Structure formats: structure tokens, C-alpha cells
Amino acid sequence: MNLFDGALQQLARATVVSPISDALHQRLLKPEREITVAIPVGMDNGTQELFEGYRVQYNSLRGPYKGGIRYHPQADISEVRALAFWMTMKCAIAGIPMGGGKGGITVDPKKLSKRELEEISRGWVRALYPVLGPERDVSAPDVNTTPEIMSWMADEYQKLTGDTRNATFTGKPLDAGGSEGRGAATGAGGLYVFEALKTKTKLPTSVTVAIQGMGNVGGNAAKVFHQHGHKVIAMSDSKGGIYSEKGLDPDAVEIYKKQNGSLKGFASAEETTNEELLELQCDILIPAAFENQITKQNASNIRAKVVLELANGPTTTDADDILFKKGIHVIPDVLANGGGVVVSTYEWEQNLKNEHWNEDEVLGKLRKLLERESLSVWERSKKLKTDLRRGAFALALERLEEALEHSRS
Q: What's the pLDDT score for residue 409?
């Protein structure tokens, strides 16, 4: 099953417990627009290559399309379509005035020079700028895209359109109109969601945490959980991981990885694989890297009390059912990793108003929003006697239904 088929399966499962109108159902089965473009890049060796780029504008009932741009050799239109669908749900669950979109380029950015990386980034904007803009489609960072890449894109868009509001791309550096708190937003948001639901899920005050993934999301999550007194017992990157029953210092782990290129040989820790990490005994398991990590093959081996999804699509629907029967709460990606898109929306708002909010203000607003919506999701799941994912979808579908009704009046 490809990722988009899995996303539609989640929609179908949600509508069983929370029916929607046929009009909304039809609007959610397909994107409003999909664009595939060829991006020509003059390479450093004198040759010219064409790279495939994408933008999927899934649904705009609640506002401009919002979603990141990922650079990855396996990126394809089906993956981007699924991610754009989830962004539609995520924005509705967060209650922000945004629709769902996503973008990407099929490329391994590690094989590009900085000049080539800038050229491909500006080329994506040149190919797509007519359908972008603060009122149409607002892009952000995702896998392998950085604040610097966002600043190149924002600059290219301004050159092409003359729009100086700087609100078409978010996740920019602070000195280029970025928002304070953006880098830590997804990891911090995961903590806020967890804290809002901690007593509901009957977890102790201090918990043990295993985190798969050390990118921006997983790395920041490890730090923020550690800073708030929780014990991070396992961390991993794409090559493998480490485990220590006594706990790890995420800052020390990150420094070691930068110096050595991997976690292999980290002192006072046992080596583990990404597959083994998922099955460790812990209070909180945080998949923060890849899709389709918890499946019907390994779901029965999961020993965490709660799965907090900071990656997109890490748990299949078959696994959802197994975990639900085991009494393991899965806090779904469309709620748990919403901190990034919320703070991106705050950046968009600051740019349009020509304001700058400090980090305490940004994260304070984020915490308040996520605490409120986490409890709303919990209440929906209890009312419908279902899992948290379907509870979250039910909340999103209610809000999308309201937007559809409003658009007709």
C-alpha cells in the first residue's frame, strides 16, 4: 500500500465513526490541484540536469494551502499527495486558518554543492511562483530543507513578483523574517501535547522516552523532554541507535554524532537497531523519522505505554488496531507534530502584520493552543469510543464541514 492509499484508509475509518456529508467526502478524496515540474540545473561539472519537483494543493476550505517542501531521492507525487492530505487534517485539528499542501523535489541534497542546492531551490520557485503567495499557498521546511533554503526561495519569489511582504515562505532565518521558536516548535509541541494528555493516559510525572530519529524534530524532542525532567533512554539516526537504562544526555549524543558521523561507540550505551528501538520497554515511544515503522508485523511487540507520533505516517492502520486492543494510546501525527505548522502560521501572521514576537510569546501561544486541541481530540475519542487518531480526524472533519457550509452561504 502506498502512503496515499493509507491516508485514504484513515479517512474511511474515521467516517465510519463520524459520518460526513457526501459533498465533503468527495472534496477530500482528491487534491484540488497537483503540479509536477522539471527543474533544470547547471551542475558544477558543466553538465545540465533536470530534477522533478512537485506541489500538491490538497484542500483550501479553511484557508491558503500550507505545507513543507522535502528534498529526498525517494520523494514522489504519491508521497507528497499523502502529506498534503495530512496537512489538511493537521491544520483543521489545530484550528488555524490554513488548508493543506505539500511540496518536494526528487533529489539527494547531500550530493549537491551549495551552489547547486541554491539553484535547484530557486528553480522550484521559478517553476511554481504563479500558484504561490500569502493568500494562495504558503510553503515551509520539511525533510532536508533548511532556513537558508527558505530564505533563497523567499528572495526568489520577491524578485519574480515584487511582493515584499515576505509571507509566502516560512521557516526562514530570524534575520530574514523568521519566527522565534520555529526550530524547536515540532519537538516542543510534542511535549505540550504529551503533557496535556499525560494524566488521561495514566502516565507517571517523569517518564522514560525512546526516540527514533535525530533530525530537527527528533533531536529537539530529545532535548526538550530531557530538559523537562524525563529520561531519554534511546536515540537513533538512519544508521542505528543507542540505549542506556540510566538515560542519555541528548546534547552529548548530538555532539558525538557530529564529531563521528554516527552513534556507534558512544560511551556508556548499548548499540541497538531502529527496529529494536521500537520494541524497547518505555513509557513513551516517539517515532520521529520515517513512515510505516509500526506495522502489523511488529505492533504486537511494542511495549511502550504511549506512542507519540512526531514523524508523518509512522503507524499503519493495521497496527493502529493492534495497539488499540493492547491499550496503547497512539497520539497521532496530525495532532502530535502540529507544532511546526502552528508556529509557521504564526510566522506568516507576523510577516503580514510586520511584527516580531519573542520566543516566550510564540511558545506560550503554541502551548495554549495545543493543550486546548489535545483535550478536544481526547473528548472526541471518548465520545465516539474509538482511538485518538479517529478522534482527531472527527474533530478535523467537523471543522471542514463547517467551512464547506460557510463557503456555500
A: 77
- Clarify whether residues 143 and 208 are in a common domain: no
- Does 124 reside within a domain? yes
CATH number at residue 90: 3.40.50.10860
Domain range for residue 240? 185-336
- Residue 205 sits in a domain of what CATH number? 3.40.50.720
376 known ligand binder: no
- For the chain, list residues with pLDDT below 50: none
Catalytic residue, chosen from 30, 102, 239, 368, is 102
Rounded CA Rg of the chain: 20
- The strands making up 306-308's β-sheet, listed across from edge to edge, are 270-272, 240-243, 231-237, 208-212, 284-287, 306-308, 329-331
* Residue 344 labeled ligand binder: yes
Q: Output the pLDDT for position 1.
A: 64
pLDDT at 2: 84
Whether 90 has a binding-site annotation, put simply, is yes
Beta strands in 60-203 (DSSP E): 65-72, 99-106, 137-141
- Establish if 368 belongs to a structural domain: no
Active site residue 102: yes
Do 36 and 132 belong together in one domain? yes
